[in-house]
Design goal:
Keywords: Membrane, Transmembrane, Transmembrane helix. The chain has 445 residues and is an alpha/beta fold. It is 21% helix and 30% strand.
């Protein structure tokens, strides 16, 4: 009996040992599996991280390319701009590494290589004829002229190769600029009475970008306003153009906002004049353009009164109260539901100003026109100036391009000094007709 018990005990010890060994074996298998899984996850994470680094490097190259393509003659870093003059060369391309101040390398050591070229198309399926450059104006158009009617800027293909220590990513992007259609009808365009005073000169003959006569030959009026409004010359004021003065514009189609002056509607308006896209947006801060090393460039959008720049600048200068609407501000009891301003005029009972009497907006400071007033300077501005109201330009400033005012009941006063407004289609094309890039397509190779 004792021997039998000892045998059973021995068998149990052996069985326990086998169970323990099997358990340890399973733990070993599980541990090895977890190790390999963790190692695989780490490798995947590492590869994803490396891929992300090279992807972000490629996107950095795209950002630099877009920034350089957006540069124009109005930018102080104009030497870093890249563009192809009309007629477009189907073989045009640009290696970003040859550009001034090329970045190319990020702080973490990653780098990018970028090439830009025109998008081309075989428009006639004939291999013996040259391809044409594709242009964009809310759709593709092949074109060899610039800018042809209804067509826009060339479509650019950006190929950016991003490199990290262990990875490489290629991003290909198609972009183009949205062209402006500026509504300029003279050296000075207005929707009200215009007084040209003193030794002021408004010259609608076409000038080059330096203010010399003999630009592209696109002569226009010196001063042009809407029908029913007078143009008064006082003192020794001079007005030249074809014709010198004209008051035949249709007030019903005259632009009521900077967006309309620039020919922008819908999304394109926000693309251009969104505060984030302007070089400066906000009320006059007491320093912008005031001869302190901060000249006006690109798009400057002043949301209140502004005395005008006192140092040389260029681009588009807008002096406009966003709450100012000529239809509302200038509405009177003569407006009824047949008037084009009826939807927004005070006579509409839905408007809170309806019960305030005739021209109620004249007493509402929040909707007053922004004024370019007492513009005393000897500086030169190249491009386009748009103001709600112009009230006296003194000193000897020179505007090469054009000026447009929006208000229809306030007299626009130009003069008292020796200022010149010299129409220049070249200045408008180079400094004012800038376009922000629109992404058309994107893919990663």
């Amino acid at each position: 009996m004792k021997r039998l018990l000892n045998k059973i005990k021995g068998d149990e010890s052996g069985l326990t040992l086998i169970v323990v060994m099997m358990f340890l074996f399973l733990l070993t298998i599980l541990g090895m599996t977890m190790y390999f899984m963790s190692s695989t996850d780490l490798n995947i994470s590492r590869n994803v991280f490396r891929g992300a680094r090279s992807f972000y490097a490629a996107e950095a190259g795209v950002s630099e390319a877009i920034a350089r393509l957006n540069l124009s003659a109005s930018d102080p870093k104009y030497d870093a701009a890249m563009y192809d003059s009309a007629p477009f060369d189907i073989n045009w391309s640009y290696d970003l590494s040859t550009a001034p101040q090329f970045k190319g390398k990020l702080d973490n050591g990653d780098s990018y290589e970028v090439n830009i070229k025109h998008k081309t198309i075989d428009d006639d399926d004939d291999p013996t004829t040259p391809d044409v450059v594709v242009t964009y104006d809310k759709g593709y158009f092949p074109s060899i002229t610039y800018p042809a009617a209804g067509e826009g800027y060339a479509v650019e293909v950006i190929t950016s190769k991003g490199r990290s220590s262990d990875g490489e990513t290629v991003v290909v992007l198609e972009i183009s600029k949205i062209p402006m259609d500026i509504k300029v009808e003279g050296a000075i365009t207005a929707n009200s009475e215009v007084n040209v005073i003193g030794n002021f000169c408004a010259d609608g003959r076409d000038h080059d970008m330096e203010g010399n006569l003999g630009g592209a030959g696109n002569d226009t009026a010196g001063v042009r306003t809407t029908s029913g409004n007078s143009i008064t010359l006082q003192g020794s004021a001079d007005v030249y153009g074809t014709p010198p003065t004209d008051n035949t514009l249709d007030p019903n189609t005259y632009p009521n906002s900077p967006e309309e002056v620039l020919g922008l509607t819908g999304a394109s308006a926000s693309d251009y004049l969104d505060p984030a896209n302007c070089d400066y947006y906000g009320p006059y801060d007491g320093s912008i353009g005031m001869n302190n090393g901060d000249p006006l460039t690109g798009i400057t959008y002043i949301t209140g009164d502004y005395p005008g720049p006192k140092e040389n600048g260029s681009g588009i200068l807008i002096i406009h109260n966003p709450n100012f609407n000529p239809c509302k501000y200038e509405a009177s009891t003569s407006v009824d539901n047949t008037h084009p301003c009826w939807d927004t005029a005070w006579e509409n009972p839905a408007d809170p100003h309806y019960y305030l009497g005739a021209n109620p907006y004249h007493s509402d400071s929040t909707v007053q026109p922004a004024k370019l007033g007492n513009y005393t300077s000897n500086a030169t501005f190249k491009g386009l100036i748009i103001a709600d109201l112009v009230d006296k330009i003194a000193g000897t400033p020179v505007i090469i391009g054009a000026m447009v005012s929006l208000s229809s009941i306030d007299i626009q006063k130009y003069g008292t000094g020796n200022a010149d407004v010299l129409y220049s289609s070249e200045a408008l094309n180079n400094f004012a007709s800038m376009g922000f890039s629109k992404k058309i397509s994107w893919h990663k190779e």
